[in-house]
């Protein structure tokens, strides 16, 4: 069993008990990044509680043999897409993808994630063209937060204006 799998076994039950789910877990060098989410998002208090619980459990079970730095956060509005389940949950959303150098075609893509399966994804660009990509061809990907509509033009904010008309008798 890998270190990441051992950490996952320790962390997941703790998060479930706090009504959180494990979005991602990454051990890169001496940095352990744990990304959590809740049914209605997560706030700083939930992150702090999760960090304390995870830190204590990792100290007790000691699944990582060397020194590490623990980082617990939310995936944010523009979420990284690293594993097939991340892509599956993002179907219908706007995403940005950078392919690996060996992949055929443009390396930087943006569009709507039309489908995600066991082996790869389908991305529809703004012109309506569909491109299939294998997960092995994706260097990195993330969702793109799309802002709501802009305020209506012509409306001044803050001050009301009045026009007076002179009446001549």
What does this structure look like?
This protein is an alpha+beta fold. It has two domains: 3-73, GMP Synthetase, Chain A, domain 3 (2-Layer Sandwich), CATH 3.30.300.70; 84-143, SH3 type barrels (Roll), CATH 2.30.30.100. The chain contains three helices and eight strands, in the order αββαβαβββββ. The strands form two sheets. It has a five-stranded antiparallel sheet with strand order 7-6-5-4-8. The protein has a three-stranded mixed sheet with strand order 1-2-3, with helices on one face. Strand 2 (31-37), helix 2 and strand 3 (69-73) form a beta-alpha-beta unit. Helix 1 crosses helix 2. The longest helix has 18 residues, at 44-61. The protein is globular. The model is unreliable at 157-169 (pLDDT under 50).
CATH superfamily of the largest domain: RimP-like superfamily, N-terminal
User: Mind summarizing the main beta sheet?
Assistant: 5 strands, antiparallel
The ordered H/E elements are HEEHEHEEEEE
Termini separation comes to 95 Å
> Into how many domains do the coordinates divide?
2
CATH topology type of the largest domain? GMP Synthetase, Chain A, domain 3
* Broad CATH class of the largest domain: Alpha Beta
> Overall 3D geometry?
globular
User: In total, how many beta strands?
Assistant: 8
What average pLDDT do the residues reach?
89
